[in-house]
Amino acid sequence: MATQGRSFLQVAATEEAAPLLRVVQIEGLVILKIIKHCQEFSPALVTGQLLGLDVGSVLEVTNCFPFPIREEDEEIEAEGANYQLEMMRCLREVNVDNNTVGWYQSTLFGSFQTVELIETFMNYQENIRRCVCIVYDPSRSNQGVLALKALKLADSFMDLYKNNNFTGEKLREKNLSWVDIFEEFLYIKVSNSALISAFMTELETDTPVKQCDYDRLQLSTNPFLERNMEFLIECMDDLSMEQQKFQFYYRNLSRQQAQQQAWLQKRRTENMSRKAAGEEPLPEEDPSNPVFKPIPEPSRLDSFLITNQISNYCNQINGVAGQSFSRLYLMKALHED
Question: What is the pLDDT of residue 4?
């Protein structure tokens, strides 16, 4: 018996869902390129393209290239887009992975959680269903730590952002809080070929101490902590301004509800008089009355992002302060000996 062929839509409808993205695997050379690009232009913020493959639950990043410095001129922006297309064409000609899997960007003291980052994610995911953003912080790396993060947007947040509906009622309905905007990958796997691993083994020195070990022993952390505290205070001021917006909204809403009740009471009294006179009662709702015009609720997106940023600064201060105390106790013990 001949089987009836299925259409593409039928096959797509019955296709199993792709596994969740759990691991980002990055080639060691890609990490070196990202660090070199970000360090050369620090403290200016730079960005670049990530290339690789999406394989099951692992997103492999095998190559990258930097973007030119962005400027507001439309002609220069068009040149940047042409540069990106030309780079992709050149990579394809030399048989190098040219599948876009996301982008990387530098940050200063971890201040990357912005509306611009969300908009970039949304633009990428119009064409790339699963993409990531690699964030590198040169200022944090100077403390002897590889400050590299892999982020993606939460699916529940993307649905709300598409509808531009960040009211309190909708957030409660979706059970969405400020911690549910970005999802950070817990595992970033660094991969190298066997040839590169053998070459790195040959380059290793006999001494067990490396430069990053000396960087971790730096006792002067005041500049880093001071800048974090400055940014934290600015975020607290911004959050206070957002709270004032909501307080103003709720005051206006309470005032409007009182006006509506007064108007309704007046209309009901008038209708009782009309009934007594044998006349038709007037409707108790009047859409043309400005008293019944709904007051738009402010978006909670900005306050969520600011709260995310405050949490990030607090975690950085907590981590650096803990390490500083450990180093101070270590130096104290060495001096006593």
Answer: 46
Q: Using one digit for the tens of pLDDT, what is the confidence trace for 136-152? A: 988 888 777 788 889 98
pTM metric for this prediction: 0.74
Length of the chain: 337
CB distance 167 to 304 below 8 Å: no
Query: DSSP per residue over 135-200, as a string?
Result: EE-HHHHTTTS--EEEEEE-HHHHHHHHHT---HHHHHHHT--GGGSEEE-SEEEEE--HHHHHHH
Q: Which residue has the tokens 């060495």?
A: 334
* CA 122, 127, 130, 132 torsion-angle sign: negative
Question: Which ranges constitute the DSSP H helices of 205-300?
Answer: 211-215, 222-276
The answer to whether the CB of 61 falls within 8 A of the CB of 101 is yes
Structure tokens at 205: 């020195």
d(CA 225, CA 11): 56
